[in-house]
Specification:
There is one protein chain. By secondary structure, the protein is an alpha+beta fold. Helices cover 29% and strands 13% of the residues. It contains four helices and four strands; from the N terminus they run ααβαβββα. It has helices at residues 38-45, 49-67, 85-88, 130-138, and strands spanning 72-78, 97-103, 115-116, 127-128.
């Protein structure tokens, strides 16, 4: 673990990661959102082929961002991937919800970037073409 990161706690009795630690002070890093590096995320959640495939998708997404010149930012992760759905619903997780906060490189034209509802509502609340638009100038 790198400095400033914490271990990801076990799922609670409701099958979710604890949103808070009741006795932790308000500024504690020991509460959600948990600041972790990729190694900690992989160590904690590579427990099935389905989870490995979802994490592979996250790595490919991050590689696409890096290829577009986006190398600074952070991500919030959520969805059934972070729940113990195997025990709760008897199925593997289907996806991971990812919100990316990024610092755009200087000189990138963002005029063509759009954020809108996806064509298929099953694909979430909002969709963006940012990766495709920003990847073109990056080569």
């Amino acid at each position: 673990m790198t400095a400033g990161t914490v271990a990801i706690p076990a799922w609670n009795s409701a099958g979710v990661l604890p949103p808070i630690r009741p006795n932790a002070p308000g500024s504690s890093p020991d509460r959600s959102p948990y600041v972790v590096d990729l190694a900690v995320l992989f160590d904690r959640f590579t427990t099935s082929p389905e989870r490995v495939a979802i994490l592979d998708g996250l790595l490919r997404f991050r590689a696409d961002l890096h290829g577009a010149g986006i190398t600074s930012g952070f991500q919030w992760l959520d969805g059934s991937f972070l729940e113990h759905v195997e025990a709760l619903e008897g199925r593997p997780p289907r996806d991971m919800d990812v919100v990316t906060f990024l610092d755009l490189p200087q000189g990138l034209d963002t005029a063509q970037v759009t954020v809108e509802p996806p064509r298929d509502p099953a694909h979430g609340d909002m969709a963006t073409n940012a990766a495709m638009v920003l990847a073109k100038p990056a080569g």
